[in-house]
Automatic annotation (TrEMBL):
CDD domains: 5beta-POR_like_SDR_a. Residues 47-355 form the PRISE-like Rossmann-fold domain. This is SDR family oxidoreductase. It comes from Mucilaginibacter pallidiroseus. PANTHER family: 3-OXO-DELTA(4,5)-STEROID 5-BETA-REDUCTASE. SUPFAM superfamilies: NAD(P)-binding Rossmann-fold domains (SSF51735). InterPro entries: NAD(P)-bd_dom_sf (IPR036291), PRISE-like_Rossmann-fold (IPR055222). Transmembrane segments: none annotated. Gene3D superfamilies: NAD(P)-binding Rossmann-like Domain.
Amino acid sequence: MNKIALVVGASGITGANLAEKLIAEGWETYGLARTPNTEIAGLKPVQADLLNKESLEIALADIKPTHVFITTWMRNDTEAENIRVNSLMVRNLLDVLSANKSVQHVALVTGLKHYLGPFEAYAKEGFLPETPLREEHPRLDIENFYYAQEDEVYDAAERDGFTWSIHRPHTVIGKAVGNAMNMGTTLAVYASICRETGRKFTWPGSAAQWNGLSDVTDARVLAAHLIWASTTDAARNQAFNVVNGDVFRWSRLWNRLAAYFGVQAAGFDGSIHPLEQEMADDAALWKEIAEKYQLKENDLSRLATPWHTDLDLGRPIEVMTDMSKSRKLGFTVFQDTEQTFYDLFDQLQAAKLIP
């Protein structure tokens, strides 16, 4: 039977990388977004608004996916609103797809806020789990839009009889423009500004993150994991962590990233220096840099998300993610994290997104 994929959020870091891999492996692949991705060869764009059920019904009327990959979300001012909006997006999508009864598997991408708490209580006292983080950890006793999204998938699966998988990456590193959580590109843009201005590449985060062990998720690893879980019988109806498979300390990697860009690194000095403050006045400067080097994107906010990078790098505990569950079931993809960053920086330069 032909495998027909619907990638929801195909313009983002996860969705774009997943779509490319699905197409390379011979899947018929549709990419749904409010602004469809038209840069991926072979991807069939679908324009729709997940908050508008009628728009979904029109857009998906003739599309009968066997596998649905939900890789998108929408940030709101409060967690209550995050829950309302993001659960509605999933519910609308699965309600509309229910009519054709074509869906065999739904994969949902969430993240480590499942363990660390939502934005309003992120990694704060009372919400600090034991690390390494394991899938067996119970839900926190606090509202969390990831839980609401999961519950929508579970309810639809029970109604329609499809299988499901939940994927919890750490910080996803990969190429995308206009993404709400984009540490890799944020650091690349910050380093490029430091090189242009002579500023130091200053560590923005906490002592715990600087000195502790950490891990991240290459978008290509996440793509492989999504396909693996959706096509492996033993992985059905389960939640999985997914990271590169190695660990690192920012105290070493920060200096290596600085060396890539030829800038001077400044490590943890006893204080947190949030990137949101460091880059607060850089929008006009980035326009000048973009014009000088003929870059394709001169809007700093489309590339850099310092608020999210601060959230990750400012945590008061080291954060590592256990991958034993996936390994035991046969997922063996591994990626060197330092190379993940270098590959991204090379991609951004080749795409004329950074100098």
